[in-house]
Amino acid sequence: MKENYTGKPANRVDGHAKVTGTAKYAAEFDAPNLVHGVVVNSAIAKGRIKSIDTSEALALEGVLEVFTHENRPGYTWLDKHYQDEDSPPGSPFRPLNSDKILFSMQPIALVVAETFELARYAALLVKVEYEREPHSTDFEANISNAYKPKKYKSTPPPDPRGDAEQAFAAAELQLEEVYSHTAQHHNPIEMHASIAIWQEDGSLIIYDKIQGVQNSQEYISNAFGVPKEKVQVYSPFVGGAFGSGLRPQYQLFLAVLAARELKRPVKVVLTRQQMFSFGHRPTTAQRIAMGASPDGKLQAIQHNAFGETSTFEDYNEDVVIWPGVLYHCDNVQVSHQLVSLDVYTPLDMRAPGGTTGTFALEIAIDEMAYKAGLDPLEFRLKNYTDTDYNEGKPFSSKELKECYRQGAERFGWANRKMAPRSMKKGHQLIGWGMAHGGWEAKQKEAAAKAVLSPEGKLEVSCATADIGTGTYTVMTQIAAETMGLPIEDVSFKLGDSSLPKSPLEGGSWTVSSVGSAVKQVCEKLQEELLKVAQKNGHEIFKDAKPEEISFANGRMFLSEAPAQSVPLLEVLALNEGKPLEAEVSAKPAKEQQKYSSYSHSATFAEVQVDEDLGTVKVTRLVSAIAGGKIINPKTARSQILGGTVWGIGCALEEHTVMDNHLGRFINHDLDKYHLPVNADIPETDVIFVEEKDEIVNPLGAKGLGEIGIVSVAPAIANAVFHATGKRIRRLPITLDMLM
Amino acid sequence: MNKENAVGTAEVTRPTLPQTRTVTLTVNGTEHQLQLAPWTSVLDALREYLHLTGTKKGCDHGQCGACTILLDGKRINSCLTLAVMQEGKEITTVEGLAKDGELHPVQQAFIEHDAFQCGYCTPGQICSVIGLVNEGKAKTLDDIKDLMSGNICRCGAYANIVQVAQEALERRTGL
């Protein structure tokens, strides 16, 4: 019997390394004569550096150099040389390129010293004189200057359908509200770090915290004019990223610059405060105007978003695609405009656009359900869609109704009383809310290589990343199952820029893209094995075609005659003791273009709100997910649990506060930027509903990194309304809003 | 002239650089003699001077718990204490938990319960669970959640970490 590794829970293959402290993250590699760089950041948000005095810092014994715009070597200044795989349209920030200050906490110097402590101290001795200009960081005050970007980073807002304005005006039930949230920061617990090691021949070895080693490689190659093959980037373990590692961050550029100039290995680790200096989920305001018939059929949706961006790049995300994906409504008009401020460019953060857009739309839907006097779940069923109206295509699969059914049953939704403030326990108002969401299931082109050693050990590789998502583990499962090998004989390599081409690790597409490549490269390896057997005149396989052979338990056989199986080792021995190799590039199948593919979620939340104090506690969560085939239910559950924790943070805690007087994010540490902690997390049920999809990719798996968060915050906000009768349309919901 | 340093505070007078001295640290049962300045934290001593990078830096301000180690069996944030203060104490890091190649039961439980994702806060969480058990204060589920709230897990593995801690407490108390 063939061992099926996929679809079954498996412990992480990198678990032992992670629990023993032997897994090495970017800042943890050593090199002889390694020196330490500490970044100095701008104290102002806009203006220029009038003077920068580094003499005191340089006077300290052990301080090697202070790099500033004044002594930075004259590298290329062209925009295209600083653009990376995830750059929005515009002119990317170039560290130490000029005296100009574009945002608060802009890196303006790198102090390099023999020890970290010394570099940190010397950084305090760098004296900067600024010429200040009035900055503009107030989102609301600048919303009237919003503009439509010439080019959108993500999908342009879908074209209008029907006549939303007229249908809204004619609708019996109407709703028009604004929904907003402030900036949020990724805050992976590992801070961004890079080590750059300059070699005698001018080549570079780099350890970087990044969600795609080849993105860093390309960026450094372009920015420093070094041929790509002379830049080798490693990132075997990433201590969380959630999007913060999609773009190479400034510590990478600075480490490379210093290593090249000093001809010594340089390590630059950002501080937690500096983790608030390079990208965030943007402050966003959304106007939603919605019309419905008295029986609860949606007649019009207008969804108009305003998102923050920097003055130098046009960042946007898919905030307004959701009416067309999540509901049946014939009159829809959406738009997305940008508000340019003196901040760093926002950066994709877990479910970019999805988190923001779904929060607003799903609260609005709840509001409309109440206007129609319908249970919010019933209202959603009335407006259910099997078509993605943005694309005008059917979904390749959509088991959302099953998510509703199983989630509601597990939660006990049927016992909910409709009226707000109708459920109470002592001083605690109890509220039940729900929401649903989606996330696109994309397959991107990805390559993989497989090497089968003469001893029968399989190594599969791709330059992808594992940011905690389980890439190492699921790829090993897919390879072991496809090749019919014991999982102990299979390993997967990633995080090395010389490995086969990978897309960035993001967008929930890694299992779909890299996983498909892993499966296909194993299939190609099987053909190679057959060729070897046939070339050497193996009796059993002499007339066999590739599709007629099977692999299981380390053996190869004709599918119709499993009894006459041959150990792989026997076939490998015919290959003169050489390893057998295969490499593929897996592309999405044409058939996919006829469909739209999304994963779906339904979240049910219970909150308790203290009637006197306004404190909100999430006491129960059920998240039901339709995510196609679940390759590893154990790591998959962890992904979804993580998503719900993020949803709780988004709904109730996370809030980067812009001090408009200083033009600076003022709560830039983990004391004042509130992340969910253990005590904030309730009992959470994760349900994976059965969903078969033969279109989405050869594995039938949809990816789970983002679907777990999107519907959590609105479910909690809707539960807060149910508990209190107060409709809060601004996140995070804090006690002052409920008092 | 309005002269400011990079963090916007007033000009500081510069003291002379601190002198290094020999500091003896006992880490995972082994004595190490290091030349350290008084400003070096236990965390930096472990990571930068002893190359024991299993103990993680997540904030350097005692706000995240990633650097949790055991000092004479008690859990502390190693970023908030100086190496020179800890001579003669038993420091245990994640590297010192497995014995003769066999994982500590809490380490094994982290794997079985999938109580981590990226793994970066994990060494701190593991030491914190062991410290929690040693303290003997946690009696209920809510106690565990409260007393484990000094260790942030951004991946959100809390539910699984709680299961590990419950199991570890049950092993200890025989409940």
Descriptive overview:
The complex is a heterodimer of chains A (739) and B (175). With 739 residues, chain A is α+β, with helices and mostly antiparallel strands. Chain A has three domains: 15-22 and 444-587, Aldehyde Oxidoreductase, domain 4 (2-Layer Sandwich); 31-134 and 199-271, Aldehyde oxidase/xanthine dehydrogenase, a/b hammerhead (Aldehyde Oxidoreductase, domain 3, Alpha-Beta Complex); 164-171 and 280-442 and 593-737, 2-Layer Sandwich (Aldehyde Oxidoreductase, domain 4), CATH 3.30.365. Chain A has 18 helices and 31 strands. In chain A, the strands form eight sheets. Chain A has a seven-stranded mixed sheet with strand order 3-5-1-11-8-9-10. A five-stranded mixed sheet of chain A has the order 14-13-12-7-31, with helices on both faces. In chain A, strand 19 (446-452) and strand 20 (458-461) form a beta hairpin. In chain A, helix 12 (471-483) runs parallel beside helix 13. The longest helix of chain A has 26 residues, at 510-535. Chain A is globular and about 80 Å long. Chain A starts with 14 loop residues before the first helix and ends with a helix. In chain A, 60% of the residues are buried. Chain B is α+β, with helices and mostly antiparallel strands and 175 residues long. Chain B has two domains: 21-96, Beta-grasp domain (Ubiquitin-like (UB roll)); 105-173, [2Fe-2S]-binding domain (DNA polymerase, domain 1, Orthogonal Bundle). Chain B is built from five helices and six strands; from the N terminus they run E-E-E-H-E-E-E-H-H-H-H. In chain B, helix 2 runs antiparallel to helix 5 and helix 3 (122-135) packs parallel to helix 5. The radius of gyration of chain B is 18 Å and the shape is globular. The relative contact order of chain B is 0.14. Classes of the chains: A alpha+beta (739), B alpha+beta (175). At the A-B interface, helix 1, helix 3, strand 6 and helix 15 of A face strand 1, helix 1, helix 2, helix 3 and helix 4 of B. Strand 6 of chain A pairs antiparallel with strand 1 (4-5) of chain B, so a sheet runs across the interface.
